[in-house]
TrEMBL record:
<feature type="transmembrane region" description="Helical">
    <location>
        <begin position="389"/>
        <end position="410"/>
    </location>
</feature>
<comment type="similarity">
    <text>Belongs to the amino acid-polyamine-organocation (APC) superfamily. Amino acid transporter (AAT) (TC 2.A.3.1) family.</text>
</comment>
<feature type="transmembrane region" description="Helical">
    <location>
        <begin position="296"/>
        <end position="315"/>
    </location>
</feature>
<feature type="transmembrane region" description="Helical">
    <location>
        <begin position="416"/>
        <end position="435"/>
    </location>
</feature>
<feature type="transmembrane region" description="Helical">
    <location>
        <begin position="85"/>
        <end position="105"/>
    </location>
</feature>
<dbReference type="GO" id="GO:0055085">
    <property type="term" value="P:transmembrane transport"/>
</dbReference>
<feature type="domain" description="Amino acid permease/ SLC12A">
    <location>
        <begin position="61"/>
        <end position="515"/>
    </location>
</feature>
<dbReference type="Pfam" id="PF00324">
    <property type="entry name" value="AA_permease"/>
</dbReference>
<keyword id="KW-0029">Amino-acid transport</keyword>
<keyword id="KW-0812">Transmembrane</keyword>
<keyword id="KW-1133">Transmembrane helix</keyword>
<feature type="transmembrane region" description="Helical">
    <location>
        <begin position="141"/>
        <end position="164"/>
    </location>
</feature>
<feature type="transmembrane region" description="Helical">
    <location>
        <begin position="335"/>
        <end position="355"/>
    </location>
</feature>
<feature type="transmembrane region" description="Helical">
    <location>
        <begin position="497"/>
        <end position="516"/>
    </location>
</feature>
<dbReference type="GO" id="GO:0005886">
    <property type="term" value="C:plasma membrane"/>
</dbReference>
<dbReference type="InterPro" id="IPR004841">
    <property type="entry name" value="AA-permease/SLC12A_dom"/>
</dbReference>
<keyword id="KW-1003">Cell membrane</keyword>
């Protein structure tokens, strides 16, 4: 999802997202031979080939797409919720959650470097696991991003109304939907440019806040709270660094603490998997994807831990109430009241960035599903710019319907539809880890992709260029962690709905798959 995070104040903090994949390879069930052949050509030539996706994303695009993917309105606004749950210990939650997300993206990147396709999750699940897994992965991700787009476009009007209160919110939603859809039809390089500059705006905003906060601390500038700005405030304000313990019941019956905050934090990282989605349209995936993936850790350190650490040093954590953004509070506390308007602009660009990424990813997902035989064939066609235009327009049209649902039945949309979007991130991450284990089994059997083909056993595994660290145990650690997250979600009234919705949603996907197979038979 992640930029992609207006729902930081709605359900989680950012959205989980997944990828779309290219045509099926030799082991993919149900893939069309023509689609596979054209993808093969696209992977081994730099010249544009009619009917193939273009490898037009440069290193700077991928780096900024990956960086911007973790920064959304969930950080700017939704971080208040996580701080209220855990206090300064939220920094530990971001570090732990960030490590798990890093391992998930490393697992995805291991496959993307060896077998780069436009997308990832659905293609890899189909080729290395089963066609059913590819169907579930693909449609789960596509629907998740439709819901994320729904939320982003439904709130874009509130940011526009900050300056132009007379403009109806549905007009703002319609205008931005048309603009971003048109941009996606121009080609992947245009998508990369839009995301590059959207990310630059968000990054500059966060760095400016960090520098401003450090200046307040260094020069001991007075603040509205009357509390001297200092990193010692992490330990002296309220009940200290870990005010609510690992997990405890509050007076109102809700659960708080570090573990409950970890649930919110995990969903704030949704969107970092966008690295894998872009692999098939990247100029040099074997060089660029590993670099972008490994940079995830320092991004988390700088843009989450450093930013929130500085905020809680300047503004006492127990005074961050969520009524306004912590980023606004830090400037308001020293008399810079223009921060609200600046942040409103940043959040508007963040919303545009999320929808831009959502539409790009969803069009590639539908393209992949069509090549697998899991979606109508027309979605697998490309225009002269190498864009799956049918996928772009179809996703945009469904998003329109979803946005109308928000405006007409907001309670239904946010309580139930967003619950599916929340739990679908866990489904997506789980499929990535299981698929990575299956990928290694296929590689060891001698049926690996590209240069790995023909090599078997440990020799084949050693030839994997970008290996998942401690691959014999890492997937199991991540899967146990994700299972623990689902258990913790059951302790929260809002997240409990998501768990139930997730079970129903999985059942719907599995039944839908069976129905498609019956029709083909």
């Amino acid at each position: 999802m992640s930029e992609r995070n207006t729902r930081g104040g709605v359900a989680a903090g950012r959205d989980g997202a997944g990828g779309a994949a290219g045509a099926a390879g030799t082991a993919a069930a149900g893939a069309g031979a023509g689609g596979a052949a054209s993808e093969h050509i696209a992977d081994h030539t730099t010249a544009p080939v009619p009917g193939t996706l273009r490898k037009s994303l440069k290193n700077r695009h991928i780096q900024l797409i990956a960086l911007g993917g973790a920064i959304g309105t969930g950080l700017f606004y939704g971080s208040s919720e996580s701080i209220s749950l855990a206090g300064p210990a939220i920094l530990v939650a971001y570090l732990l959650g960030g490590l798990i997300i890093f391992l998930i993206v490393r697992a995805l990147s291991e496959m993307s470097v060896e077998d780069p396709k436009a997308g990832a999750f659905s293609y890899y699940a189909t080729r290395y696991w089963s066609k059913r897994a590819g169907f579930v992965s693909g449609w789960n991700y596509w629907f998740n991003y439709i819901l994320v787009s729904m939320v982003e476009l439904s709130v874009v009007g509130s940011f526009v109304n900050y300056w132009f209160p007379a403009i109806p919110q549905w007009v703002s939603a319609a205008v931005f939907l048309v603009l971003i859809t048109a941009a996606n039809l121009l080609g992947v390089s245009k998508f990369g440019e839009f995301e590059f500059w959207f990310a630059v705006i968000k990054i500059v905003a966060v760095i400016a806040m960090i520098i401003g906060g450090l200046a307040v601390i260094t020069f001991a500038l007075p603040t509205d709270s009357g509390v001297k700005a200092s990193f010692m405030n992490w330990f002296t304000v309220g009940d200290g660094f870990l005010p609510n313990g690992l997990m405890q019941r509050a007076d109102d019956g809700s659960w708080t603490g570090l573990l409950m905050a970890l649930v919110v934090v995990m969903f704030s990282f949704g969107g970092t998997e966008l690295i894998g989605i872009t692999a098939g349209e990247t100029e040099d995936p074997r060089r660029i994807i590993p670099r972008a993936t490994n940079d995830i850790i320092w991004r988390i350190l700088v843009f989450y831990i450093a930013a929130l650490g500085v905020i809680m040093a300047v503004v006492p954590w127990d005074r961050i109430d969520g009524e306004s953004s912590p980023f606004v509070q830090i400037f308001d506390s020293v008399g810079v009241h223009a921060a609200a308007g600046i942040l409103n602009f940043v959040c508007l660009t963040a919303v545009m960035s999320v929808y831009n990424s959502a539409l790009y990813s969803n069009s590639r997902m539908l393209y992949s599903l069509a090549k697998q035989g899991n979606a109508p064939a027309y979605l697998g066609r490309l225009n002269k710019r190498g864009v799956p235009a049918a996928g772009v327009l179809t996703s945009a049209a469904i998003t329109v319907i979803a946005v109308v649902v928000v405006f007409v039945w907001p309670e239904f949309a946010f309580n139930y539809l967003m619950s599916i979007a929340t739990i679908s991130a866990v489904i997506n991450w789980t499929i990535i880890m299981v698929t990575e284990m299956r990928f290694r089994k296929v590689v060891a059997s001698g049926r690996g992709p590209g240069e790995l083909a023909g090599h078997t056993g440990s020799d084949a595994l050693e030839r994997i260029q970008f290996k998942l660290p401690f691959a014999h145990v890492t997937p199991y650690v991540v899967l146990v962690f994700l299972a623990a997250m689902v258990v913790l979600m059951c302790f929260s009234a809002s997240y409990r709905v998501a768990v139930v919705a997730g079970v129903v949603w999985l059942a719907v996907l599995l039944v839908a798959y069976q129905l498609t197979q019956v029709r083909r038979a």
